[in-house]
Automatic annotation (TrEMBL):
Protein's UniProt name: Glutaminyl-peptide cyclotransferase
EC number of this enzyme: 2.3.2.5
Species per Swiss-Prot/TrEMBL record: Paramuricea clavata (Red gorgonian)
Taxon lineage: Eukaryota, Metazoa, Cnidaria, Anthozoa, Octocorallia
Family the UniProt entry places it in: Belongs to the glutaminyl-peptide cyclotransferase family.
Catalytic activity: N-terminal L-glutaminyl-[peptide] = N-terminal 5-oxo-L-prolyl-[peptide] + NH4(+)
This protein's record includes keyword Amino-acid biosynthesis: no
Any Pfam family: Peptidase_M28
Length: 333
């Protein structure tokens, strides 16, 4: 991901909002009881999360053995879970030569009319230069932790219950090739999300596109370090952001913590974040975006210290709890 000039972003977002082809439909989430909320908070298992995370904690540069191993691991996980798994495989001539990329799409109920698209990227950045030596860049927050969080969320949902609702369901897209190989530009970055957004913009036999079925795209990125701050960046999804904020307040109240000083999700009106990431190709095509990324970026962003030792267990546990509750409420699952 990359920070752009705020003035450019403001103009960019406004223009795309004016040309938006998607409108967030009126889905009425149910608010879980305090009893059920407490049960979810108590059952969120960090040890299980670490088990999901461990196989992703390796260099995942496209074209390497580590990348292939993680790709197969993610595919197997969602296949074993009973979700429909499809692959968007394509070849692209990059700034360092031809590469093959694979976006992984997992769908709980393919028959649903609308989808809440939960996303992250699973590749990792090439780290070059003498200061990096031969050390392997594990990219824990960027984005091994978000991928493992998505796996945990999916595992916590009742697939049989999800299949009973054909109005809306959850879909996962794990993007390949988010990182630039050399320098972040429009051509050298977000290879996978650009390809999938274009693919899903093609009409079917009934002149419908898959993009038109997306209620919102929720992108998780750079998660896992202590004291993240998240801001609402898009008016169309501000209600969903506020629900995340409300859930966080209830979770903290359960623990007896009501201070606003250490809240993850901040209040206020939506403001453009000025960040380029995997959501941009979908935003340009009118898909509502819910971007969960800390501002400022974590201390170890694109540094070798993003190796797992920088992760904060309590922060990850709290975020997992919030996300589990959020999807159970919006999916009424």
């Amino acid at each position: 991901m990359f920070c752009m000039n705020n003035i450019i972003i403001v103009l960019f977002v406004v223009l795309n909002q004016l040309s938006s082809t998607n409108q967030v439909s009126v889905i009425k989430p149910r608010t879980l009881s305090s009893t059920r909320l407490k049960r979810i908070a108590e059952s969120t298992d960090y040890d299980e999360f670490e088990t999901l995370l461990a196989p992703i904690m390796k260099s995942r540069v496209p074209g390497t053995n580590g990348h292939h191993a993680v790709k197969q691991y993610l595919i197997k996980f969602f296949t074993d879970l009973g979700w429909q798994v499809t692959l968007d495989e394509f070849d692209k001539n990059t700034v360092i030569g031809p590469k093959r990329f694979t976006n992984i799409i997992a769908t709980a109920n393919p028959d649903a009319k609308k989808f809440m698209l939960l996303t992250a990227h699973y590749d990792s950045k090439i780290m070059t230069g003498k200061q990096n030596g031969n050390k392997e860049f594990l990219a824990a927050t960027d984005s091994a932790v978000p991928c493992a969080m998505i796996m945990s969320i999916a595992k916590g949902l009742d697939l049989n219950q999800l299949k009973k609702n054909n109005n809306y369901s959850i879909q996962v897209a794990l993007f390949d090739g988010e990182e630039a190989f050399v320098t972040w530009t429009e051509d050298d970055s977000i290879y996978g999300s650009r390809h999938l957004a274009q693919l899903w913009s093609q009409p079917d036999a009934n002149y419908n596109t898959h993009l038109s079925k997306i209620e919102f795209l929720m992108l998780l990125d750079l998660l896992g370090e202590k004291n993240p701050r998240f801001y609402s960046g898009f008016p169309e999804t501000h209600g969903y952001f506020e629900r995340l904020r409300h859930i966080e307040g209830r979770v903290r109240k359960l623990r007896g913590s009501v201070s606003e000083n250490n809240r993850f999700f901040t209040g206020g009106t939506p403001q453009p974040l000025g960040i380029e990431d995997d959501h941009v190709p979908f935003l340009r095509k009118g898909v509502p975006i819910l971007h969960v990324i800390p501002v400022p970026f974590p201390e170890c962003w694109h540094k070798l210290c993003d190796d797992g030792k920088n992760l904060d267990q309590e922060t990850i546990h709290d975020l997992l709890t919030i996300f589990h509750i959020f999807f159970k409420e919006v999916l009424r699952a």
